[in-house]
Design brief:
- The radius of gyration is 14 Å and the shape is globular.
- With 162 residues, it is of the alpha/beta class.
- Strands 3-2-4-1-5-6 form a 6-stranded mixed β-sheet, sandwiched between helices.
- It has a single domain, classed as Phosphoglycerate mutase-like (Rossmann fold), CATH 3.40.50.1240.
- Helices cover 30% and strands 22% of the residues.
- It is built from 4 helices and 6 strands; from the N terminus they run βαβαβαβαββ.
């Protein structure tokens, strides 16, 4: 059995510019500062990331690009439409579809779905703030997520410098 680590990263603080669709909302200045801090936290605490799955929303893509820029190596990244506006069940399906060759993955998404996924998998209520990270661990395959005990191993709220 393989140990799995899933880092769930909520996108950084987004702006609300007039006339821009929700899908295309960019990061706010604070988000542009916080996303690299999240990347530094991931680099220091996860060491290696095998794959990232990210919402196609602009704010999630920007968060991941800025965070991944802080990593020693950028992992294979795929964008999955199920993450944008995804229910906990949608997000669980994304996790269960991660390639079995990967042992550590990052999922970059949105609330309320990402916080609800953490709660559903661990049984512990947890609310992710913007740029918040929850690291979940379990033994087994990605496909086992949701059917085996999952531990909330770490939580972080990385913030950038002002």
């Amino acid at each position: 059995m393989t140990d799995r680590r899933l880092a769930i990263l909520r996108h950084a603080k987004a702006a609300w510019p007039e006339g821009v669709t929700d899908l295309e909302r960019p990061l706010a200045e604070r988000g542009e500062r916080d996303a690299p801090a999240a990347g530094r936290w991931l680099a220091e605490n996860l060491r290696r990331i095998d794959v990232a799955v990210c919402s196609p929303a602009a704010r999630a893509r920007q968060t991941w690009i800025l965070a991944a820029g802080e990593l020693a190596a950028t992992p294979q990244t795929r964008y999955d439409e199920r993450i944008y506006d995804g229910s906990p069940g949608d997000l669980l399906a994304v996790v269960q579809d991660i390639d079995e060759a990967a042992s550590t993955a990052v999922l970059i998404g949105h609330n309320p779905g990402v916080s609800q996924l953490v709660t559903a998998l661990t049984g512990q209520q947890h609310e992710l703030s913007t740029s918040g990270i929850a690291v979940l661990t379990w033994s087994g395959d990605w496909a086992n997520a949701g059917s085996v005990p999952v531990e909330l191993a770490e939580v972080a709220k990385p913030r950038g410098e002002l």
